[in-house]
Structure formats: structure tokens, C-alpha cells
Amino acid sequence: MNGHYVRLVYVAVFLTLLTAGCERSEERDLQVVPPFIKVSVRNFTPFAGISKWTQTVTMQISRDADLRNLVDLRVFGELQPGVTAQQVETRFGKPSETRTDEFGTVWYSYKTELGQAEVGCEKATSPAQGGKEVVNPPCWWDLYAYTEQPVSNILKEPVLSRLRTAEQIRSKVSNRTLEFLDQAGQPILLVWLERERISKMRLLRHLE
User: Fold this and answer.
1) CA 183, 116, 80 angle in degrees (round to 5)?
2) I need a labelling partner for 196 at 20 to 30 A (CA). Which of 103, 126, 157, 163 fits?
3) d(CA 169, CA 61)
4) How far apart are CA 173 and CA 34, in angstroms?
5) Is residue 12 part of a domain?
6) 99-131: per-residue pLDDT in tens?
7) Rounded distance, CA 132 to CA 79, Å?
């Protein structure tokens, strides 16, 4: 067997392994009941040979639906997204604690009925505009919440039953995310789940 043929064999084997290792994704629509207009489940893994999957359950609700009837939002207290730390302190007093994350964002935490909520001004992640580094990138005020409550205490029906269906589709995942969208497809709320617990929640829309 000459060297040229051996190299061709190696190349063929490499391409086969590379193809086998390409990302895999699965998507399925679930049964729709009011107030949902669409519910879909997407399972994703970066490599076919890796068993760690990520699952995203997207729930799109009708225009007249109230998110508070689907998720117990008391974990956010009376805080709303877009409100600055100064505005929150003026209304509710000093935070129960503050922390600085690995990106340098300062988070201001407030205890709520079901856990704690925190606001922080996250800077834009885009490193440059027009090929030039942005010296002082803008930031926007985000609102997150954390709770020790069981999932069934936070998520209401029919959200909970759709989550259980998604878990049956792929039970072993590295992380699972719930996305709540409005009728136009814009995000309202994100919920991250880990080991049957809610690891964090993010409210993106000001609720009246």
C-alpha cells in the first residue's frame, strides 16, 4: 500500500468522524391549548457523539393572555425590568446585598415573597463598532430572580404539563430553558431549570 493511498484513507476516516461529530438538533411542536398559540420543544447537542443535550421549550401566548396566570411572578416582587438601581433604592430602600459578577456588573438584590430579585446594568457584549473598540459600551438594566420554591409552586397549568411532556421527550439534558413569547414572537420571560429546580428567571417585559 503506497503512501498516497494511506493518506487518502486517513482523510476519509477523518471526514467520517467529523461528519459524525456534527451538531444534532430535534424540534417538535406540542399540543396547543389556550392561552398558547404555539408550543415547541427543541433539543440540541453540539456533537452527535456527546450525550449532553440542551432543551428549550418555547411557549407563545395569545395577545389577551396574562403571564401572571401562567407563572407566579411574585418572586420578582414589585421590581420591573428597565428600572435602575437608583430608582429601586428610592422606592424600596437600600438593597439587602450587592455583588459584582465576573464581567464587572454590579447587582443589587432585594428579598421578595418567594425568593430574591436583583437588578444590574449589563454592558453590551459587542466588542467593536465599525472595527473600532468601544471604550465605554452602553449598558441596559436587567431584572433577574432566584427562588428555592419547587417548580410546581412557580409554574402553573398548562405550563407545568407542557414542561412534563418536554421532559418525557428527552429526560437527560445538561440544562433546560423555558421561553415565553408574546403573540408577535417577542420574549417576555426566560426560566432556567436545573435538576428539577429553577436556577434563575429573567423578566424582559414591563408588566402593568
Assistant:
1) 40
2) 103
3) 22
4) 28
5) no
6) 999 989 999 999 999 999 999 998 866 555 555
7) 36
Q: Does 73 fall in a domain?
A: yes
Domain limits for position 185: 23-125+137-203
Q: Provide the 3-class DSSP secondary structure of residue 99.
A: strand
In DSSP terms, which residues pair with 179 in a beta bridge? 58, 190
Q: What is the DSSP string of 128-189?
A: EETTEE-SS--EEEEEEEE--S-HHHHBPTTHHHHHHHHHHH----SEEEEEEE-TTS-EEE
Please state, in angstroms and rounded to a whole number, the distance separating the CA atoms of residues 72 and 189: 12
Q: Give how far Cα 123 sits from Cα of 62, 139, 192, Å.
A: 32, 4, 21
C-alpha cell at 1: 500500500
Residue 17 lies in a domain: no
H or E element in which residue 8 lies = helix 3-20
Q: How many domains does the chain have?
A: 1
Please report the DSSP string for 50-91 in residue order: ----EEEEEEEE-TT--GGGTB-GGGGTT--TT--HHHHHHH
Note every long-range contact of 190-197, with CB atoms under 8 Å and residues 24 or more positions apart, other chains counting.
191/71, 191/154, 191/155, 193/151, 193/163, 196/150, 196/151, 197/148, 197/150, 197/151
Q: Is residue 151 part of a domain?
A: yes
Could you give the percent of the chain with pLDDT greater than 70? 80
**Cα dihedral sign, 12-13-16-21:** negative
